[in-house]
Amino acid sequence: MLTTEQNKMITQVGAGTPMGELLRRYWIPFAGASEFDDKPVRAVRLLGEDLVAYRAGNGTFGLLNRHCPHRRADLSYGFVEDCGLRCNYHGWMMDEAGHVIEMPYDDTANPAQNLKAKASTKAYPVKEVAGLLFTYMGPAPVPELPVWAPFTWTGGFRQIVKSDIPCNWFQCQENSCDPVHFEWMHDNWSARLEGRSDNATKHLQLDFVETDYGHAYRRIREGQAEGSTLWTVGRLALWPLAFYLGEHFEWRVPVDDENTLSIAWFFESAPKDVAPVVQEKVPVWISPIVDADGRWITTHVINQDIVAWVGQGRIADRSQEFLAASDRGIVMMRRRYFEDMKRVEQGLDPKGVIRDPQVARCVPLDRVLLPPLPGDLTREQWKKHPGLSRKLIDHRHCAGQPAKVRQDYLRAMGFGPDLSLLPNVGRELQPQD
Ligand code: FES
Ligand SMILES: [Fe+2]
Questions:
Q1: 419 located within any domain
Q2: Residues that place a CB less than 5 A from ion ligand 2
Q3: Domain check: are 211 and 317 in the same one?
Q4: Contacts for 421-428 with beta carbons within 8 Å, 24 or more apart?
Q5: pTM of the entire structure?
Q6: Pocket residues: Cβ below 6 A from ligand 1
């Protein structure tokens, strides 16, 4: 339980707030690079700031104040040129560093005055890794962008999935250190939704450990194999706003105090009898969270999580909660956020900031390995495997995967390009699910 004041501290993300300042010490993902292929200028709201992201003709990404430095026009209606973003009102052009590089009328009428040298706008750096765009919104010196080891994996299929969630980011992130909800929200509730009354194996023991880059939770469930990496390694609540599960990451990115961007990155190794995949672009798609009746979608894993998060209220009131033994990891994380807010106030680096480029270029993360791994099996073995065969039918985590992405995924896994395979695969596999 937190006091109302503590709850404010831990949930508010604006500039100048303690948590807002803490989060501004990290690189934060905000989009997929391929989103800019057909629409090179996009409005972005991050940590309560209205921004505009663009990809210039020369391929450089920029992230600027959404309002033009001249007379505040909306730059998300601007247009890109070779080396910058031009405002549609009077034609000023800005580069990715926030310099005004053209002022058409002044440059023509008073070129000697070079007024543009005195104008500038807010600009944040943007870097692309594994198809994701990250920005850093904090003070200099800018830390290194960690390249997590899975970003360097090859020979598989990557995809990025986004959803807009109408609640505060912190209740989403607390879910990253909450193992017991798997048994209930994803296992038992899914069974009820499918008309079944069976219960999943119970959690018997939990452990929570702080690591260099986050907080791991470890679990033992009934019947779990001895030495399972679910107990020896566990899942990682990746500091400060992500969840790492081995072959995928989920970030809970604060849009503002009452809205969160869920952005997830997935990697799938192909079966071992398939030629390695070469993916030119990482597809990005939007997963809907509301169905035709206006109810939350409940069919997929992340959608189920979202039902929990939005159900806690726009900003969960932690002065009204009653914590139990399953919440030890959450208590541990909260304590660390409060300590880190203090560190930032004192001018110190908070947890996990990387300043050494050699360390940042490929940061290993321990992961849960539940054999057999997808890349260890052939296509035929995939079809017969309960977990992997499900993946051929649907993307398990997020609702609404576009047909084109599904088609590309199946091709990459060696099951395409004949799309008619898809329903056949479903029928064929149902008895074994
Ligand atoms: S408001 Fe943008 S150029 Fe005038
Ligand atoms: Fe979950």
A1: no
A2: 305
A3: yes
A4: 422/392, 422/393, 425/383, 425/389, 425/392, 425/393, 426/392, 426/393, 428/383
A5: 0.95
A6: 68, 70-71, 73, 87, 89-92
Closest ligand by atom to 104 CA: 1
Which of 67, 70, 100, 103 to probe ligand 1 with, by most ligand atoms within 8 A of CB? 70
Q: Which residues contact 372 (CB under 8 A, 6 or more apart)?
A: 381, 385
| Nearest ligand (C-alpha, residue 105) | 1
The atom number, within ligand 1, closest to the CA of 72 reads: 1
- Of ligand 1's listed atoms, the one at least distance from the Cα of 92 is 3
Q: With contact defined as beta carbons under 8 Å apart, do 54 and 62 qualify?
A: yes
DSSP 343-365: HHHTT---TT----HHHHTSB--
Cβ atoms of 374 and 271 closer than 8 Å: yes
223 lies in the same domain as 295: yes
Q: Which domain does 119 fall in, by range?
A: 30-136
Q: Hey, whose CA ends up nearest to atom 4 of ligand 1?
A: 90
> Tens of pLDDT along the chain (433 residues)?
899 999 999 999 999 999 999 999 999 999 999 999 999 999 999 999 999 999 999 999 999 999 999 999 999 999 999 999 999 999 999 999 999 999 999 999 999 999 999 999 999 999 999 999 999 999 999 999 999 999 999 989 999 999 999 999 999 999 999 999 999 999 999 999 999 999 999 999 999 999 999 999 999 999 998 899 999 999 999 999 999 999 999 999 999 999 999 999 999 999 999 988 889 999 999 999 999 999 999 999 999 999 999 999 999 999 999 999 999 999 999 999 999 999 999 999 999 999 999 999 999 999 998 888 888 899 889 888 888 888 888 899 999 999 999 989 998 998 876 544 544 444 433 322 2
Helix (H, G, I), strand (E, B) or coil at 107: helix
Is residue 163 one of the residues assigned to a domain?
Answer: yes
Number of domains in the chain: 2
Domain co-membership, 183 together with 110? no
